[in-house]
Design brief:
Elements (H helix, E strand, L loop, with lengths): L1 H18 L3 E6 L11 H15 L4 E6 L7 H10 L5 E5 H7 L15 H8 L2 H7 L2 H5 L1 E18 L14 E4 L3 H9 L3 E4 L5 H7 L4 E4 L1 H6 L8 E17 H4 L4 H36 L2 E4 L2 H23 L4 H26 L1
Parallel strand pairs: 1-2, 1-3, 5-6, 8-9
Antiparallel strand pairs: 3-8, 4-7, 4-8
């Protein structure tokens, strides 16, 4: 009995060491650690469960939200090295600063609907588009989430935006992103770059009159407390780009690399559905909590598109030169996907 007790004790003492993970994958993001009000937290929780189960706990996935590990730029820089942070989620503006070609994704009125956006971001074409990011930034692409629901809505303190003329002179907060600034200037607004962490103060003090984020973001971060009017314009599709340190990833066994990639793809697919729910809830709550709400008409979207797209294209040529042809290929692929989806609806459900 004594020998048995000693053996059991030694086994218990050794168990934690035997079960210790060989790898830690720390993921940083800005959204709340709340599984009910955003798509990022639940998607990453599902990813954590998939990876830890598939590797028998040999990869320990640790998720830190609320900017607990620093701002996006700081977290991305640490992810490059792969020492303290191995994976990061970046908003559109920050992502473009780490991978220049991503500026093209901020094109005005790029997607006609959610189905097209999701199919595009999950397509082989887009995966190939993102591959050069590894060499340029040291970050490997895992997937694209819809930032609070993707299609953005204006919110401001001055007036309800019903037409492009209503944007004239409004000081609209933008990410530190030249593409967003170009779009706002084209539409007659006065773009004001401001870090995310200073947005609420900027709105409360009058430094800026308004901003644009998806309805889910407006609701999650209670931006109706500092703005009165909101218009769902959908002029930009905001995204969250999920990437992993190439330095860290390349050291993993090949089967672990496959596990991370396949688990990430499932988590991204799950996030699309959650984002759609967040968007619907966010817009319904917006119309309850803002003083006034409005959905931009298709005719007015067409007017804004005709104004903004040529100006954006000119800026892109100035910035990218001959490389701007990639933007034309990107637009053609979006159109192809949209046409294919619409054609399949007719063939599968109407014929």
């Amino acid at each position: 009995m004594i020998a048995g007790a000693l053996f059991a004790g030694l086994a218990l003492a050794a168990a934690p060491q035997a079960m210790a993970a060989s790898y830690t994958m720390t993921i940083a993001h800005l959204y709340p650690d709340d599984l009910t009000n955003n798509e990022t937290a639940p998607a990453l929780k599902h990813f954590e469960q998939l990876v830890e189960s598939a590797t028998n706990g040999d990869i320990d996935v640790q998720v830190f939200g609320n900017g607990a590990l620093g701002g996006e730029v700081e977290a991305a820089q640490q992810t490059r090295a792969g020492k303290t942070i191995q994976s990061v989620m970046l908003g559109s503006g920050t992502q473009a600063s780490f991978y220049r070609n991503y500026e093209m994704i901020t094109s005005p009125f790029l997607f006609p609907d959610y189905r097209t956006a999701w199919a595009f971001f999950d397509s082989p074409w887009f995966a190939k588009f993102m591959k050069p990011m590894v060499e340029e930034s040291g970050l490997r692409y895992l997937g694209t989430l819809d930032d609070g629901g993707g299609f953005v809505a204006f919110a401001n303190n001055k007036r309800l935006i019903r037409t492009v003329e209503d944007l004239k002179g409004l000081r609209i907060r933008v990410e530190e992103n030249q593409a967003h600034m170009t779009i706002m200037k084209a539409l007659g607004a006065s773009p004001t770059p401001l870090p995310w962490g200073e947005l609420q103060t900027g709105l409360a003090t009058g430094l800026v009159d308004g901003h644009f984020h998806a309805p889910g973001v407006n609701d999650i971060f209670k931006l109706y407390d500092v703005t009165n009017f909101t218009t769902w314009s959908g002029h930009v599709y905001n995204t969250i780009t999920w990437s992993v340190s190439e330095a860290w990833f390349s050291e993993l066994p090949e089967d672990y690399q496959r596990i991370i990639m396949t688990s990430a793809r499932e988590a991204v697919a799950m996030a699309h559905g959650i984002a759609a729910q967040i968007t619907v809830i966010g817009w319904v709550n917006s119309c309850k909590k803002f003083e006034e709400c409005h959905i931009l008409s298709d005719d007015e979207k067409a007017r804004m598109r005709e104004i903004a797209q040529p100006v954006y294209r000119e800026w892109l040529v100035e910035e990218f030169g001959e490389k701007a042809v990639l933007y034309d290929e990107l637009r053609a692929e979006v159109t192809r996907i949209s046409d294919e989806l619409n054609r399949s609806v007719v063939e599968n459900y109407l014929d």
